Amino acid sequence: MAEDLQNIELVMLTLEDFEEVVVLTKHHFLKRNPLFIAAKETSESYGESSELTIKSALDSGFSLGFREKTKKKLVGVNLTLVQNVNQLLKHDTYKLTKQSAVYRILAMIDADATMFPDVTCCLYLLMVCVHADYCGRGLARMMTQKVLEMGRERGIDAACVQAINTLSARIYTRLGFETVKSLDLSTITDELGLDLSLIPQQETTIKLMLKR
Ligand SMILES: CC(C)(COP(=O)(O)OP(=O)(O)OC[C@H]1O[C@@H](n2cnc3c(N)ncnc32)[C@H](O)[C@@H]1OP(=O)(O)O)[C@@H](O)C(=O)NCCC(=O)NCCS
């Protein structure tokens, strides 16, 4: 494992990385994430508004990636937004993507300011994605850990995430996140046209997780 990790390096992501991030997430997030699979979300339906959110995350100074050292290929991303607690997760993207079942589901499990009585600013971990060939080597955990450290160094102690995958929920739990809300997708299947037969049973719960 150590040998594998010698060929990749942790990098800060910026707006210059936008095109590569979109390509990686189209292939390795949209097509592998259980919620997106059950919602039959395509890159077209997820579309333009997700790109706006990705750009904001790349501009936040808190988004990281892993690149191969030789070919410089992007193999993992952790996209993070910094949000004022009073505006937590109330993105315009929710309005822009009324058609997107995924955004409507995520809006059902929003965080709100009452969950952070003592803080003003919070890291919102928007998306973690690792290229399938590089999974299981701790890359997602390392990127998440580093983003939390960067937050602490800049005085941001709180973080939240909507975990839509058991592997990512495991990473967040080990890094000290607690589940504050859960949404069982089987309770909204008809309303949103989800097909839960497309995903493993253990992947049908979405969790809002916080670290204070
Ligand atoms: C979820 C995802 C980001 C994990 O990336 P990763 O780099 O493989 O994760 P890590 O190697 O840091 O592993 C995290 C944990 O999952 C475990 N794990 C990773 N891959 C595994 C696998 N295939 N089977 C079982 N466990 C696995 C690791 O052992 C580790 O557990 P531990 O901390 O108890 O040792 C990656 O699978 C992915 O991009 N999935 C598609 C997109 C997605 O769903 N993103 C999450 C949205 S919230």
Automatic annotation (TrEMBL):
GO molecular function: N-acetyltransferase activity
CDD domains registered for this protein in UniProt: NAT_SF
InterPro entries: Acyl_CoA_acyltransferase (IPR016181), GNAT_dom (IPR000182)
Residues annotated as domain N-acetyltransferase: 64-199
The protein's name: N-acetyltransferase domain-containing protein
Species of origin: Cherax quadricarinatus
